[in-house]
Amino acid sequence: MDTMRPRDFDDIAALEQPSILAAMWRYRWLVLVIVASIAMLGLLAQEVIPAGYSAEAELFVEDPAASNPFDTAAAVARTTDTQRYVADQVEILETNAVAEEASQLLGARGFVWSPDDVTASRTITSSRDVNLITVTFDADSPEAAAAGANSIVEAYQKVRTAQV
What we know:
Order of helices and strands: HHHEHHHEEH
Number of domains: 2
Radius of gyration: 31 Å
Helix content: 55-70%
Strand content: 5-15%
Low-confidence stretches: none
Structural class: alpha+beta
């Protein structure tokens, strides 16, 4: 019978080779110190690094000139015109006039932000497929982030109304 044969040297050597668990057990105090140090560094980083908050406001814009949706002959021209209109609205949102107005609106809400701070804290993105513009505002508190995003949208509406 094969089960009664003596073990080969390779079988015994394989059983006696050190494993990762055996090494961890042998150096258990070192492993414990490393794990505790990493946990303490994580907790310290959580306390030291300030929390950042971000708020988003979305604008759905539509070109007033493209008001007839049943005009199939101008559908292709309308698509490129709509993309250009959205890009123009993003440019308006990024102007200094909107940043200055948003800074004033934030001041009225109790937050002190200069127009340069408003410009540095906001991100404006648009989608090619949808007439959607997203305004993102980063701040140190959730209230300031929400107020910043809303102030930029209100400032945009005021600037657009003044242009018309």
